[in-house]
Write a structure and sequence with these properties.
Elements lengths: L2 E8 L2 E8 L3 H22 L4 H45 L1
Antiparallel strand pairs: 1-2
Length: 95
């Protein structure tokens, strides 16, 4: 496996990790986005406690993930229904 050893800095703390080369850019971008959210919450709410800021970012990320999953479920269901409709139309036209 093609892995890289990198360090990601989050909330002024470095975290060494091994990542697949193909995932490096995504991992670095995730670290950057976390730090941007930390900064935004710090400025918006005037909070300096890193643990509180990290908890807020984690909560925000989970809410976003849940919303995305719900959207994907709706899309999947719509696609499933459309495929069934098309299958029905095709089977009716064959007869």
């Amino acid at each position: 496996m093609d892995e890289l050893s990198i360090k990601i800095k989050i909330a002024d703390r470095e975290y060494p990790m091994k990542v697949k080369r193909v995932d490096e850019e995504r991992v670095r971008m995730a670290g950057k986005l976390i730090n941007e959210k930390l900064k935004s919450y710090k400025e918006q709410f005037g909070i300096d406690e890193k643990q509180d800021l990290l908890a807020m970012v984690a909560f925000d990320c989970i809410v976003d993930k849940m919303a995305a999953e719900e959207t994907h479920q709706v899309i999947d269901q719509t696609v499933f229904e459309k495929v069934n409709q098309l299958n029905h139309i095709v089977s009716q036209s064959i007869l």
